[in-house]
Amino acid sequence: MQWYLSATEAMRALVAVKRVIDYAIKIRVKPDRTGVIKDNVQHSMNPFDEIALEEAVRLKEKQIIKEVLVVSLGSPKSQETLRTALAKGADKAIHVEVEEAVAEKIEPLFVAKVLKKIAETEKPDLIFLGKQAIDDDYGQTAQLLAGLLNWPQAIEVDGGRELIRIKTPAVISADLRLNEPRYATLPNIMKAKNKPLEKKSLSDYGIEIAEQTQILEVSEPPVRKSGGFVEDVPSLITKLKEAGVL
Amino acid sequence: MLRTQRIESVSIRPWYSPRISKELNWTTRNITGTLNEVTLPLPRYEQVTLRFTGTLVLAEHNGVKLTPITLNAINAASKLGEISVLVAGVDIVKIAEQVAKVDQVKRVFVSDHKKLEHQLPEFVAKAVETLQKQYKFDYVVAGASVFGRDVLPRVAAQFDVSPVTDVIAIHGDDTFTRPTYAGNAICKVRSNSPVKFLTFRGTAFKPAKESGGNAKIEKAPETDFSFDCVEFVSQELLKSERPDLQSAKVIVSGGRGVGSADNFKIIYELADKLKGAVGASRAAVDAGYVSNELQIGQTGKIVAPELYIAIGISGAIQHTAGMKDSKVIVAINKDSDAPIFEIADVGLKADLHKAVPELIKAL
Model pTM greater than 0.90? Predict the structure, then answer.
C-alpha cells in the first residue's frame, strides 16, 4: 500500500490485535469435537495484525501519525499480546477483558461493535486491522466495523492492484504483502512494561454477548493419502493418463 | 380455501431445509386426515409466506463479463430457495442478460449508477442494503472472493448480523460447514441470525449451468450513493491469456525451488502445454519470481482444479491450505522428505530443471 497522506496535523491510529495459536503450530482437534486444543499451545499475535501494527508504527516514524493506540479483546492472556505491541512501538493499550470461555464465543460482529465504541471515545483517524485472524479465518471484522461506522474501507483486490483515495477517518485492513514487521528488541520490551495499559470490560461499553453463530462440531479435515513415487517422467505421464487428467 | 392455498405453497417449497420439510410433511398428513381440527400454519411457516423470501446472490463482474465464481455461488444458493441476483455497475445490461439465462435464476435486479463503475464496496454495499430493506430476502450471499468478502460483511453490519464466510457445505437452512485454522479444522455451525449473510467458497460448489434460466430483469430500487469519502483513482490489472486461477482445470504451480524469475518460464511453458493456469507458493512470491496475484495458499487464492502440479514447492501448511482439495496432486521436488509428497497422488523425486523440460517435450 502506498500512502499519499497530506495531513496538516498528526493523526491518531487505533490498531486491533488478536492473540491466536501461533501460525507454525499444527493444531489438533479436541476428541469431543467441541473445538481445538488450546491449553499449553504456543500463542502469538495474529500475523496479519502484526503487519497492521507495523504499518501504523511506520507512519508514526514518518510523523504522519502522532499516537498509536492498540486494542485487544480477549482473555487475560491477551495482555501479553498487547505488551508485545507496545514493545513494537504502540504508545498505549486497551485490554477489553473477557473470560476464557466467553472469548471462545466472540464473533467478529461483537469485536466490531466494541471497536466502534472505542473509536467513538478515542476518535482515531485511522483504524488498522489484519485482513483475517488465522484461527477463525472469518475475514470480516474490518468490513463490519467500516459498515457500522459508515467509514470507507481499504482492502486488497483480485487480479491486480487498485488505487483508491479515501477520506479519513477510515478503516484499513492489512494484507501479508503490506510490509515486513519488525521484532521487538529487549530494551523495547523492558520499556513496554511502563507504557499505559488500560483494562476494560464489555459492560464498560454497554455490550452484551449475543451469540449468533453456534459452533455445533469441530472435526479433522479428511486426510489425503500419499500416492507414492514414480521413477521418471514417462511413468508420471502414464499415471496421469490412468487418472484421466491428461 | 385459504388453507388449501397455504398447503399448495408448502408443496412448492421442497428445497427448504430437511428439518422444515419434515415439519411440513407432518402438517400435511394431519390436514388430509382431519382438516377441520387442524390449526395452521406453523409459526415458522407463517413467517416464510409473509416475506418475499428467497436468496439474493451478488453478481461479481468486471464490467464486461460475469466472474465464474458467481455461477458457483448461484448453484450453492439454489439449495436455499428461489434465487434473485443483483447486478450492480454501469452499462451492465449484457451482464444482466447473461445472468437471466443462468439455470435456477428467477429475478435479476439491475442497479445501474455511475458510482458503481469500479465496484467499490462502499457503494455496492449501499445498493445491496437498499434492495434487502425492500425485499427482505432470507439469505444474502456471494462468492468468497475479495469482492464478496469486501461487500457482504459491510452490508451485514447494517442488519446487525454475523456473516458466515467461506462456507464449503450446506446442511440445512441454517447449518453450514466452514474451514478454520487454514483448513486444518472443519467447523459445523448453526446461524441463528434472522437473515443469513453467507459467502461460498467457489471450489466447493459446482457452477450453475449458463443456460436454462429465464429470469425477469428489473430495476433495483433507487439508492442513495451520496457517500463521498472514497473515490477510485486507477487500477493495474494482471493481463493474461491463460485461464483464471480459480476456474482453471489444470494449475501448474512453482515454488522457491524454481530458483529465479527467469526460470519460471518453464512453469509458464508447461501450463501453456496443458492449457492451465500458473500459480505460485508464497516463497516464490516473496522471492520476487512472480507477482502476488498468483499466490496460492492461506493468504492467497484457494483453488481446487482437476490437476495440480506443484513444482519446487516444499508444501508448508500455508500453501497446502490453498490447494489440498485438488482432485489429483502431482509433486516434483528433489527433496524426497518434502511434506508436499505426503499429500501428492503422484510424486517425482527429481531435479525440476531436468524433469519439467522433459515433461514439456513428452506432452
Answer: no
User: A91 Cβ partners below 8 Å, 6+ apart?
Assistant: A67, A68, A69, A195
Inter-chain CB proximity A160 and B299 less than 8 Å: no
Size of interface A-B (CB pairs under 8 A): 227
pLDDT, one tens digit per residue, over A69-108 is 999 999 999 999 999 999 999 999 999 999 988 888 899 9
Secondary structure (3-state) at B329: strand
Reduced to 3 states (helix: H, G, I; strand: E, B; else coil), residue A224 is: coil
A50 close to B199: Cβ distance less than 8 angstroms: no
A173 at interface of B, judged by CB pairs closer than 8 A: no
B51 Ramachandran zone, left/alpha/beta (phi>0; psi -120 to 50): beta
Q: Do A163 and B235 touch (CB under 8 A)?
A: yes
Question: Cis peptide leading into A124, omega within 30 of 0?
Answer: no
A-chain residues within 8 Å CB-CB of B350?
A: 232-233
Name every residue whose Cβ is closer than 8 Å to that of residue B128 and which is 6 or more positions away in sequence: B56, B58, B86, B88, B140, B151, B155
Q: Is B312 marked as binding a ligand? A: yes
| Residues A19-60: tens digit of each pLDDT | 999 988 889 999 999 999 999 999 999 999 999 999 999 999
B288: left (phi over 0), alpha (psi -120 to 50) or beta: left
